[in-house]
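Regression report. Comparing outputs from two consecutive submissions.

Submission 1:
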Amino acid sequence: MIRLAIVCPCYNEEAVIGHSSERLLDLIGRLSSAGKISADSFVLMVNDGSRDRTWELIRGLHAKDPVHFKGIDLAHNAGHQKAILAGMMTAVRTADAIVTVDVDLQDDIEAIGKMVDAYAEGYDVVYGVKVSRKADPVFKRLTAVAFYRLQRKLGVETVYNHADFRFMSRRVVEELGRYEERNLYLRGIIPMIGYRSTTVDDVISEREAGESKYTVSKMFTLALNGITSFSVKPIYSILTTGLIFVVISICIGIYVIASLISGTAEHGWASLMLSVWFVGGVVLLAIGMIGLYIGRIFIEVKHRPHYHIREELD
């Protein structure tokens, strides 16, 4: 039997930790009784710089049951993706396989049993794919679908409708540790590793308590990382956009010349139309896109640590 680690990133989640820990402990007990995982499988909660009592509650769980509850306290808010990475790199030292799931347990944790079954069949990665998003707000549903479609068009290899609920064998996590990029987008990196993978259905449910900590700005940042870290097509699109604007400029130029000949054009209007609206727009667009990639390069070449662990409960 495998020793399974369930890694849960936590940021200001004091409202849900109690209920979630009970559900996860019950799940481990049932999977252990069924002979799917070992009895010493555990939950590793990662406190991502929370400002509430999250870490205090995690320490309480560990003190009560050190076998099944472990934790790490990051020195600052490193972000969702890096908190997951910190948990995986810590858990892989003692676990045979790892499942990552948000501590609010909106993902269907009953699918973890199916993930373990798939691992027994020879799969190293099992993705939880959302078959229903009714529990998500309408805005999140629409933007998520649009983002996945955009990624596909830009050539980014990801699993459609998959977030960060997944099962990975030890060797996959060890290979993941070899990837050093700072602009983390795990949903794009893990498919690149290439080990045998499959999917299970994941029906999203309502949060038991509290509010989602994934704000619009955080989702936008994650989306940018997902695109700029795996595709250079936005850079190439600048050339296409430039050519389109050149064609439009020629058409406007013809119209301007015709207006000048007919005498209907105001003085200075032609130069304003051509220089400001078209040439200026193309230049700003190009500079912005190139600047975005240069900013990513600037972060990568520093090779700074992804996170710092202040305290570990083992």
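Submission 2:
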Amino acid sequence: MLGIPLPPVFVSQRQDGVWDVIDGLQRLSTIFQFAGILLDNDGNKVERLKLSKAKYLPSLENKIWESKGDDKDDDCLTQQQRIDIRRSKIDVNIIQRESNKDTKYDMFERLNTGGTPLSEQEVRNCLLIMTNREFYKSFESLANNPDFQESVTLTDRAREERYDMELITRFIVLRHSEIGALAARDDVNTFITEKLVDLASGDFDFAVETARFEKTFRIINSALADNAFKKYVVEKSRYSGGFLVSVFEMIAIGLGQNVDAWADEVRAQERVKEVSKIIWHDVRFTSHQGSGVRGSSRIPHTIPLGAELFAA
């Protein structure tokens, strides 16, 4: 309405001609919702938006797209204003190499430089939706598991950036990867992203994975609740501080690699309590954890050690 062009939208074209939006989803969704044509995942229309006044167009305060029914509504845009919006042009750049997942990931990285940058996991979620929507739905459902939610103590900011799904990604990917190969990689995030998309592109049994995930976090939550992934302070004989990803790798992934062998969940709970304390006496763990240790240096040590400590 100010005559200023919108930034271009980037889409990836599938084999069937459908476009997946790579960059511009928020812009498009806002326009659709204001016009009353945005649909949710169930095909239902989302409640329409009202405009807020802006510096140069204060008269738009509380304006809606158009009146409901036959009644004239002074709070709606005029017909000419709606026509002007409909005639506005939005540049769309189409990426047609839809079979190459690396192209999509590269596009995310290149475009994710302005505004509020996406977290690594938010980028992965977009890639999963484009790669295998059903895999993504099953994957996302794990984040609602109550045992997982109660044992993983995250800040509101971390949850908003989907760090909960980042942890689920690590739980799945690092149990299905050759950990030794990670030592030669500088970028853990790229390694994890590539492996996750590979799993989503293949024949992955999510029913089996879900059962293992639920059993693992049922045991952990029953054993330690919200102390599960915190530091155990030996001198004070208590857990302290916030969530530590190194402890998560040791306990959650270590137990997850062996969980099928733990038929007695009560014994498994006792083992979780024991491991959560003894790792702080073990130089194999303490020498590879802390804020100064890179993931590519830490993970090749924590994952095998966790698997060893939870061997049934």
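Expected: both submissions complete independently.
Actual: both completed, but the second showed a warning that disappeared on reload.
Relevant detail on submission 2: The chain has two domains: 9-95, 121-309.
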